[in-house]
Amino acid sequence: MSTQATPEVKQADFAGVDSQARGAHVDQPAPALKKQAPKAGPTTLAASLNTALADAMAADPSMVVFGEDVGKLGGVFRITDGLQDRFGQERCFDTPLAESGIAGMAVGMAMNGMRPVVEMQFDAFAYPSLEQVFSHIAKMHNRTMGKVRLPITIRIPYAGGVGGVEHHCDSSEGYYAHTPGLKVFTPSGVEDAYLMLREAIASDDPVIFFEPKSMYWSKEEADLGALRESYEAGDAERTEGTARVVRPGKDATLIAYGPSVPTAFAAAEVAAAEGLDLEVLDLRTIVPLDDAAIDASVRKTGRAIVIAQSQGFASVASELVARVQERNFHSLSSPVLRVTGFDIPFPAPKLEKHQIPSVDRILDAVDALTWED
């Protein structure tokens, strides 16, 4: 009886597949990218993600990028800009408006040795794909007793702050974090965005990669060329499962991720002018979660506030509060608080400033902590 080739064998044989199936360009050097990678200096988060995709595609001919309008247009937020020109329409291509089909096609590709990276155009647009994600992408490795892995990265622009409406500004990370078998990443800075996307694509497990759309055009000093060399040499900092302290402090810990990190940082700066020294901890990856870093920070400060744009009920923030109090109860000088979105559908643009956690709401929570030691 014949046996099916393993995904590893299929991956190794990828370059030999008929060019009609994969594209004749696979065995040829990629043509020069018309739009050069950003030089060292002020760099946007969007440019960082675009460069990470291009570098990963250049490094691995089995990687393909697809989704709605990601080819010629370069994506609604231009994150895939220039990829089709460089790598051809066989490796970066548009799909019909059918998110379930996009995710299902990624499953078949990944099972046959490819490394798909798909874009869901907006957070809530991904909901039609949830059956594929929850029933197949998250469970295939377990269902096959470890014989089949699905190296799929699903990129999702998420959260508010751009004047959008419902179906365009959801913070849906809780659905995915609740599902065993998925990793959940969300960067908050330019260098992290590059490294985290490269790690997500390289992972043999499926990764839901949440991109804070309000931060796409925020700029930081970065040298993506040097970062590429460091990553490909194996010298770069590991980001998966490692939170980072973006502002040290001693009085309380602000725990945040994605678009809430700069807001938490701004609140800490205002609090410093009022005599309080707040630590800001960026989780970076929700799954896996860096419990050790959270514990170390909270045990140092004795107080914690969790900040997230998603609604508070049954959320990632709820889980973080529970874990902090279960693991650090005797180190706490105050109950752990939350500053989150309200438990309502995302409101109209004129009202979103009330829905999204703000510096004032965070400082109000800081005032509500117990300060008598």
From TrEMBL:
Cofactor(s) essential for the protein: thiamine diphosphate
Oxidoreductase in keyword set: yes
Keyword Oxidoreductase: yes
Entry's Gene Ontology molecular function annotations: magnesium ion binding; oxidoreductase activity
Domain Transketolase-like pyrimidine-binding: 43-218
Key words of the record: Oxidoreductase, Thiamine pyrophosphate
InterPro entries linked to this entry: THDP-binding, Transketo_C/PFOR_II, Transketolase-like_Pyr-bd, Transketolase_C
Residue ranges, compositional bias (Low complexity): 29-41
Region called Disordered, residue ranges: 1-41
Domain of life: Bacteria
Name of the featured protein: Alpha-ketoacid dehydrogenase subunit beta
Species of the source: Galactobacter caseinivorans
